[in-house]
Amino acid sequence: MSVLVASDLDRTLIYSPSALALTMPDARAPRLLCVEVHEARPLSFMTETAAQLLSDLGDAAVFVPTTTRTRKQYLRINLPGSTPKFAICANGGHILVDGVSDGDWQAEVTSRLAAECAPHEEIQAHLAETADPVWLRKQRVAEDLFSYLVVERELLPEEWVKELSAWAEELGWGVSLQGRKIYVVPKPLTKSAAVHEVLRRTGAPLSLGAGDSLLDADLLTAVDRAWRPGHGELADTGWTAPDVTALPERGVLAGERILREFLKAARSRG
Q1: Per-residue model confidence as pLDDT tens digits over 64-94
Q2: 222 and 199 in contact (C-beta within 8 Å)?
Q3: Residue 174: beta bridge partners?
Q4: Distance CA 90, CA 137 (A)
């Protein structure tokens, strides 16, 4: 196909109950489809209209889910439509091909991280030493590639995040605050690098993308055209770039709008 669509998932195409932003009267709320169940509980949703749009997109373009989720977290999502041949997980740390991590890409990422940034163990030790149990709920390691903290946002001091960001910057790592999670990620570990590799393999001449967080900024500037919703870190900071459209929609309706834009662009190319 002539179009590749690389899109973030959480708070871009799929939404937790707390992120739905259903501000309309209940009787006018869109019908929702559950696309993820975890520990017997429904966890992520999209509108039924968005589900149909995504199914149609799979026939018009190479759709590549592009997520910071681990492989295990990604594989429990049940997206509508045909199963994507390619998926990018762990913020670019893994390229899945038919559900299996590509060994050559994995080796390239490992080599790059070893050469360009401080070891993960140093980051983990610093987080364990400085994070306050008053607001810290969990400290997690994702795929042995990066760390994230689950926090009580209202108790989290802004200064701590700023100090962490400055400290990590010197070691070649970046910090992103998304809802109740603080991600600490090696700078060479990017969605854009993985997308470029999938583009090389598919040969698609046109690339489209979408995302809501600072970890998506490099993805949005790496593709030919991109969209961001009216919520998230990028919207909150007023981030923009050439060929990136800032949408007004927030919450689950933003996901629907993004898929409409993807489909329109893919079909016009065809």
Answers
A1: 999 999 999 999 999 999 999 999 999 999 9
A2: no
A3: 185
A4: 21
Alpha-carbon distance of 154 to 140, in angstroms, equals 20
178 pairs with which residues across the strands?
Answer: 181
- Enter the tokens of residue 263: 């489909």
**Residue 226 pairs with which residues in a beta bridge?**
209, 244
Distance of CA 65 to the CA centre of its chain: 8
- DSSP H helix total and E strand total for the chain: 9, 14
Burial class (CB in 10 A: 0-12, 13-18, 19+), 167: middle
Q: How confident is residue 270, by pLDDT bands cut at 50, 70 and 90? A: low
- Token representation of residue 130: 């400085």
Give the strands of the sheet with 100-101, arranged side by side.
86-89, 94-97, 100-101
Pick from 216, 262, 257: which is nearest to 9 by CA?
A: 216
User: What's the mean pLDDT when you consider all of the chain?
Assistant: 96
CA distance 228 to 264: 16
Q: Per-residue DSSP letters for 65-117?
A: EB-SS-HHHHHTB--SSSPPSEEEEGGGTEEEETTEE-HHHHHHHHHHHHHHS
Cite the DSSP H helix spans in the chain. Answer: 48-60, 71-75, 103-116, 120-130, 158-170, 191-202, 217-222, 233-236, 252-269
Under DSSP, the state recorded for 15 is B
